[in-house]
C-alpha cells in the first residue's frame, strides 16, 4: 500500500523536474537583449513572443505588425522566436544595409531543412545556404530574363483562353464565381505548362491528381501551420519534432512527374524551351544554358563547369512550380476583390486595357502589356495591401555592428541571430502610405514612388535574395487580369465578404474562406 501511495508522488516529482528543466532551457536566453542594451518585447516561457501565433489567435503578418506599431520610435526591437533571440527591423535605412549594402552578412534564410529526409524541399533555392546558394542563384537567374518571359508569353495567353471559357460557363449558370479557387486553378495550369510543358487541365478538372498534390503544399491545416511557423522561427525545434514541409507522397509524385517528362523529351528528341528545359540544361551542361544569352548585369555569365545534381534539379523545378501558382493566384484574387469593391478603378483599368489591345489589333501582346501603366499601378497596390509573404527573414552570418537605438554608440549583433523584416507592417505604415487601409493605385505613380523612402515596398524582397520568379509571377497576374477585365464586369454578390479576414493557419497572406464575386459578360 505504501508503494502505491508513493507512485503519484514519484510521477509528480519526475514531471515537475522535466517541466522545470524545459522552463530553464527555453528561458535561458531571455536576458540576451537586456544585456546588449537593446529594447525588447517581454517574452513568455516556451513560445517567446509568438504565443498569439502558436494559439492561432493572430496571423504572423498581423502579429509582427502589432510589434512594429508598438515600437514606432525605435529603428529595431529585440524579440524571441520561441527561445531564440531575433531582431525585428523597422528602419528603411537599416533595411537597405541588411538587404543590399551589407547583404553578404545576411545572405541566408533562417529556415533549415534536413536534406536527407526532405531532399525536394531541402535542396530548393529558397533553402540553400552559403556558397552553394550563390552558385545556384547565379546560374538560375538567366532563366527568368525578360527575353525568356516574352518567349513564354503565348503559353500564358493560352491558359487565359481556358480561364475565359470556364468563366463563360459559370456566368451562364448565374452563380457567383469562387475566385480564390478559380484563379489558383488558372495559375496552376499556366505554371504547369510554362515550367513542365504538361497540360494539367486543372481548369477543366479541379480534382485532377496534379491539382490534389499541389493543393497539399499549401494545405493550411493546424499541423501545417505549426510546421511552417517552426520552419521560419525555430528550425532546430522543427527538426527535433521531425516535422516535414512536404509529405512523402507529394514529393514522390513531383519527382516522378519531373523525371518522366525529362525521359520523354530525351527519348523523343523533343526540345521545348520552357523552364524545365533550361534547368535540365544546368543539370547536364551549364555552358549550354547561356549559349544564346546576352552577358549583362541582369544576365551574368555562368560558370560552364556548374552543374546541378539530380536532387537539386528536382528541387529547383519543384520550387518554381510551388512558388508560381498559389502566390499569383492569391494576388489575382485580391486584385479582383478590390476591383469589384471599387468600380471606378475597375472602369479606368478596363479603358486602358481596351485601348492598348485595340492598338495591337485586338490582342494582348507582351509589348502591349508593358504599356499598361495603370495595370501596373493596380497590381502594385494589390501587392502593397496584400503582400503574399508578409515578412522577410535573414540569418546574421557573422558578427555585425548596428547603430544603437539611442543614436549614440553601436550594438554588436552576434553571428547566428535571426532578423525579421515585417513587410506587411511597412506596407501599412501611415508614415509611408497615408490611409493605408484604402485601396489606392495612385500611390504608385512615378511621382509618388519617387517621394517615398526606398525599402518601404518589399512584396518580392530586395537585394541578392529578391524573388527569382518575380517577372513570371507579374506576367501571369497581369495577363490574367487583362483577359478577365476586357470581357467581364466584376462586382460583389450577396455572399462577398465586406471585410478581409486572414487565414491564421497560413504563413502566406490568404483570405480565410472563399471570395465569391459576380461576373457579367461585356457585350462585344
UniProtKB/TrEMBL annotation:
<feature type="transmembrane region" description="Helical">
    <location>
        <begin position="7"/>
        <end position="26"/>
    </location>
</feature>
<feature type="binding site" description="axial binding residue">
    <location>
        <position position="467"/>
    </location>
    <ligand>
        <name>heme</name>
    </ligand>
</feature>
<keyword id="KW-0479">Metal-binding</keyword>
<dbReference type="GO" id="GO:0016705">
    <property type="term" value="F:oxidoreductase activity, acting on paired donors, with incorporation or reduction of molecular oxygen"/>
</dbReference>
<keyword id="KW-0812">Transmembrane</keyword>
<keyword id="KW-0408">Iron</keyword>
<comment type="similarity">
    <text>Belongs to the cytochrome P450 family.</text>
</comment>
<keyword id="KW-0256">Endoplasmic reticulum</keyword>
<dbReference type="InterPro" id="IPR001128">
    <property type="entry name" value="Cyt_P450"/>
</dbReference>
<protein>
    <submittedName>
        <fullName>Cytochrome P450 6j1</fullName>
    </submittedName>
</protein>
<keyword id="KW-0492">Microsome</keyword>
<keyword id="KW-1133">Transmembrane helix</keyword>
<dbReference type="InterPro" id="IPR017972">
    <property type="entry name" value="Cyt_P450_CS"/>
</dbReference>
<keyword id="KW-0472">Membrane</keyword>
<dbReference type="Pfam" id="PF00067">
    <property type="entry name" value="p450"/>
</dbReference>
<dbReference type="GO" id="GO:0005506">
    <property type="term" value="F:iron ion binding"/>
</dbReference>
<dbReference type="InterPro" id="IPR002401">
    <property type="entry name" value="Cyt_P450_E_grp-I"/>
</dbReference>
<dbReference type="GO" id="GO:0020037">
    <property type="term" value="F:heme binding"/>
</dbReference>
<dbReference type="InterPro" id="IPR050476">
    <property type="entry name" value="Insect_CytP450_Detox"/>
</dbReference>
<keyword id="KW-0503">Monooxygenase</keyword>
<keyword id="KW-0349">Heme</keyword>
<dbReference type="GO" id="GO:0005789">
    <property type="term" value="C:endoplasmic reticulum membrane"/>
</dbReference>
<dbReference type="GO" id="GO:0004497">
    <property type="term" value="F:monooxygenase activity"/>
</dbReference>
<keyword id="KW-0560">Oxidoreductase</keyword>
<dbReference type="InterPro" id="IPR036396">
    <property type="entry name" value="Cyt_P450_sf"/>
</dbReference>
